[in-house]
Amino acid sequence: MRTVDPTTPEAMADRPRFHGDLRDNSPVAQSADGQYYYVAGYDNVRQVLEDHSHFSKNWGSQLAPMEHLVALNQDPPDFNDFKRLYNSYMSPAGVKRWSADCARIAEEVIDDFESLGSGDLQALFGKPVPAKVTARALGFPEDRVDMYRRWTDSFLDAMIRAPDVQKQVMDEMYAFFDEQFELKRQQLRDAGIETPGREHVGTVIDDSLTSLLLTSQYRGRYLTDEEVRRTIRGFFIGGVDTTGALMLNTLQHLLKRPELWEQVKANPDLVDAAIEETLRIDPPAMGMFRGVVKDVEMAGEVIPKDGRVLFSVLSANRDPNVFKDPDSFRLDRKDGNRHIAFGTGAHFCPGAWTARMEAAIALRIFIRRLPKLRLNGPVEYFPTINFLIVRHFPAAWD
Ligand code: HEM
């Protein structure tokens, strides 16, 4: 089997080329450090995500196996009951509850930096907007952005250097989560409620995902604190930098083609097509991991039991068998809705509709308020193997 190294400066500098080469020449390959197997190409990636008899999320979707069979780390059929807890809450209709907050947050964040005239839009806009919206969705204080920034940055750093260091960040996050759970439980107790239920969400305690999980019954019992923490962590870490990268990558594509920037300014409804095309061509989650349940043959290679697999969303979203002219950014694309930037199957991203709504609202406001935006330096990315997350976005505006 071919071995490949995604961490070389060449591979990092041109991720589409690295992933395209995998898809076209060796869709199943082993990483040079021997820790995992790559799977590339649209059909192969879908197979990893949909064939639970061979590929499992029971140990999580990062390289280092974590929390066996807890909350999000389950396969169907058991997982189907678990995700019913929040599925309709996170649906396209459900997330509309946060649309006015998204608009307010985007306006306030821009108020804070507009007068600077130039700066790093990752720090000024791409981090604080999703951090505050995610905090709102989880029922956490919006004004702790510095702390949220530290957690999400440390998560990315740990992913690059030592996946097991994530544990240290988690201990600090969990202590904060526990305080927030206790605040909501105290409000329920103060109201004399002994058996909390969904009817108390948005009435006695705030209308947030945390409130929902603390009051929901799952197979006849409340979730354990460990299950709630694990789930909230997934939503928190999953929701911030990915959505920030989506907004900044969309701006980058538009700025690099001034005619597109002008078109979108003239017709802001094109923002939706620009967001969808950015998700396809530059998926912020380039790939995730699965565990291998039993030996599996794919593309003429055998991936052995107990191995870890990294599925390449980037190679799938630019697969020429599925997308016409796959490496071009086009606002008039007809085949774009087949992209799998949010995954597919049982673990399809539950934040997909939040991310789309947030990006659509925040970018419309951004483009209206900073119409003379321009890049004034190279956009830099975190050097991770499976996320395409913007680290610096130097820009100027009038
Ligand atoms: C552009 C933004 C986003 C992208 C590209 C993205 C991408 C993804 C992908 C590809 C997965 C599937 C992982 C797998 O199968 O192993 C996923 C899962 C997940 N995402 Fe997102 N996501 C985004 C935004 C969000 C937001 C805003 C939230 C929270 C509100 C969120 C929460 C989650 C959670 C909790 C999971 C785990 C689901 C599960 O394992 O069943 N994501 N995301």
Automatic annotation (TrEMBL):
Q: What span is annotated as the signal peptide, if there is one? A: none
Ligand binding (heme): C349
Q: Residue ranges of region Disordered?
A: 1-20
Q: What is the protein's given name?
A: Cytochrome P450
Coiled coil ranges (UniProt) are none
Q: Name one GO molecular function term.
A: heme binding
Keywords, ordered alphabetically: Heme, Iron, Metal-binding, Monooxygenase, Oxidoreductase
Does Oxidoreductase appear among the keywords? yes
Cofactors named for this entry? heme
Q: Which domain of life is it from?
A: Bacteria
Family per UniProt? Belongs to the cytochrome P450 family.
Pfam families, alphabetized? p450
